[in-house]
Amino acid sequence: MSRPEHQAPPEIVYGGDEAAKYTGNSRIAAIQAEMAGRAVELLNLPEGYPGFILDVGCGSGLSGEVLEEEGHVWVGFDIAPAMLEVALEQEASGDLFLQDAGQGMAFRPGTFDGCISISVLQWLCNADKTSHHPKARLMRFFSTLYSSLRRGARAIFQFYPENDDQVQLIMGCAVRCGFEGGLVVDYPNSKKAKKFYLCLFAGQEVNGVKQQLPAGLGEDEEGEPGENGVQYTSKKRNDSRIRSGKRKPGKDKNWVLKKKEQLRAKGDKTANDSKFTARKRRPKF
Amino acid sequence: MRLITHNMLQCHVKGCNANNFPLELQEVVLEQEEAEMNEDFLRNMLTKIEYDALVATCLKLDINDLPATIPADAAYNDEFLQILHRVILETHIKSGKMVCPNCQHNYIIRDGIPNMLLAEHEV
Hints:
Chain A has helices at about 10-15, 15-25, 25-45, 60-70, 80-90, 120-125, 135-150, 165-175, 240-245, 255-265; strands spanning about 50-55, 75-80, 95-100, 110-120, 150-160, 180-185, 195-200. By secondary structure, chain A is an alpha/beta fold. In chain A, strands 3-2-1-4-5-7-6 form a seven-stranded mixed beta sheet, sandwiched between helices. Chain B has a four-stranded antiparallel beta sheet. The interface between A and B is medium-sized, with 32 and 28 residues.
């Protein structure tokens, strides 16, 4: 799996071209919308309750559209100006900010009824500048997020953890900032549809009901998500080289003769050409 | 950025912990955009809005529609909810800057998007 977070800082990876691609590609959009839908479901807000929701790493506002459909008012921030520009073109309904999650947030305590974030947390585990310390940035992010959430609100982070250590680091920081909760894994038996959702509770609900960690989807079955969702296949994409039947020619007799000619021209000692030149040896030699 | 969001913002520069709200708006260009009225949402937000700060901000922007104090029956006062909706959800700040009253940090707003990035020594 390719990992864009290994290439460059987010504001560079999601510059101009990539930003346009992200919104133009219907498959990416469908996956994003599906994950956003699942994140909103995990927020577990009461039916028909129009909340004030924060979208961390809102990008071009794909997940905001899902929030809007559910009747919520949202505020989003992103570090990539190109993505925000696309969001402006699309006339995203939420308020947008240019902000770095690792620098913390500037919202008053108790502002939001919930927070969702799609494919962001793994970026915070990188140190893109010498002044960046992933752990310190995560701590600052989670502590300011905790205070900006209403008591009992949830924060749902879909992310692509690289390894177990990264999960431990992120969860450790969240717990130290006061969050409760854990990891929800959807379709754990599927290689491609497997999705990680970090489900955090900012304290317990005011009415005293203990918050339960929701169960992941498709935990028992072997299968992939149903027909409603984005389809994942195990088939590889068509490679143009395989399709056209062309292969790079191997090192045949002509190649060997050419090389020998070159060496002679240089004056190197070279064996004479014979009927055995470039002939394969028998298997039993 | 809508005024409701401005009402939720405070300065987050390192060490700037007191008197950092509300951020003072300067050289502001406003725009009205119609939005669908959602009374339930407004009722939910009533407890979260710092009403005094909102009125003060509005007065500076020459918006004089809001009553000076919040009505006692605010949640079911249709007239008041209408005004509140127009002020906090339909009034957008298109450009300008926000200045922290404490540390004087400037947050520039361009195309309706405030730049909240901090310099390294401010984190």
